[in-house]
Amino acid sequence: MSASGLQTRFILSLCLAAAAPSCAAEPERSAARVRSIILGSQHLGAHGMGYSSRSLAELSRKLGPADIAAILTLLPERKLSTGVQFALASQCAAAIVPVREAVLQRQMDFLAASDVMGHIAGFEGCAPAAREQARAMQGELDRLRDERQAGEQQQAKQRAENDARIQRNAARMAQDPRAAARELSREEREEVYRRSLAAMGLKEDGAMTPQQREMVQRMYRTMVLGEPGAPSSNAPAK
To answer: What are phi and psi of 41, to 5 degrees?
Structure first.
């Protein structure tokens, strides 16, 4: 191995073993540098300071593919969202897959990702092949959005059906506990029990007063195990 290779390996070993502050702070410095470059790429336009094709050209010169990871860390900063989109678009083909992954990981919404692809497709600084890939990715993003929406709608429908079923079972248990204990499965009875606890703001493994703990245990015995209701230990003896 060359001397320079040994030196690089030695420095990396020091970073990993000692967690040197200069090594740990590098990602933060990178994000700060990228933020400064993005903010500095704004120009005065018809609607005040903002981003334009001129911004794309500047960002493509000042940033590189190695900066994409740092750019993505700025996604939560809503005030910087437009600038982040332009910064990603300035990297042309190199940004297409990372943007898609950010969408799949719910770090970036579909509209913002589609805007990035639109900027790439319209940026003359990107190669024709990259611009075509961006147009194709817009169609891919539309498909992924439709699939996610369909899945979320199905989940919402399933939750509504489960809620209605649990409510019906709760009504049966309230009207005729003995019949419900025979006709409902233990799992169904536990669902009603847990829903009742949630309605009272309680959790089985959560903090409770001794009185609440006693009440919850009594609910479990009567609702889940089907035992006759037992009087509280605090109730006066007859």
So the answer is: -90, 0
